[in-house]
Design goal:
The protein is about 20% helix and about 10% strand. The chain is of the alpha+beta class and about 170 residues long.
Length: about 170
């Protein structure tokens, strides 16, 4: 394990500038077959007035497992993953509830001396869109190598999680 060699696996943050975007489903940008899901309508113009920072990647099993190990498991639920043989280490952690995610953020703040918290829904969508008016942070077309989803990649599509990269 990496932390036994003196390396603590910690997330890397990047600045998320203040800005504005349209949150929710916009016809012609996000719709599926000409319809938006009711929970994503009507679209709302959002202004993030203050910059913040967000981790470049999702929290990995390695990062979360280090937190569980370093706290002796006190107040931290171990993330269980019954996968399809792809492993855990660099994959995004799954099966962590909101309370434990907040505990991880609080521990990370104490451990690094920097403030960490869960992003708001608005911050997360702004970061995912990279502040762009397009469907995705890289443009409007899905294309190969941009997402892990059903039909995107014959080898991994709809099979496992994968590390994403922020496009901010």
């Amino acid at each position: 394990l990496a932390w036994y060699a003196g390396h603590a696996p910690l997330p890397t943050a990047v600045p998320l500038p203040a800005g504005r975007f349209t949150m929710g489903c916009v016809l012609g940008r996000d719709d599926l077959a000409g319809q938006c899901p009711p929970e994503e309508t009507p679209p709302v113009e959002v202004v993030l007035e203050r910059p913040c920072a967000m981790a470049i990647n999702e929290v990995t099993f390695l990062e979360y497992d280090y937190y569980v190990w370093s706290t002796g498991g006190k107040g931290a639920a171990s993330a269980a993953y019954v996968g399809s043989g792809f492993g855990r280490d660099a994959l995004p952690v799954v099966n962590v509830n909101w309370r434990d995610a907040n505990r991880y953020a609080a521990w990370l703040s104490r451990y690094t001396g920097q403030p960490w918290r869960l992003p708001s829904e608005r911050e997360w969508e702004y970061a995912a869109r990279a502040g762009q008016a397009s469907r995705y942070g890289w443009g409007s077309e899905l294309g190969a190598g941009h997402a892990n989803c059903n039909g995107c990649d014959a080898r991994y599509g709809n099979v496992r999680t994968e590390i994403g990269r922020a496009h901010v």
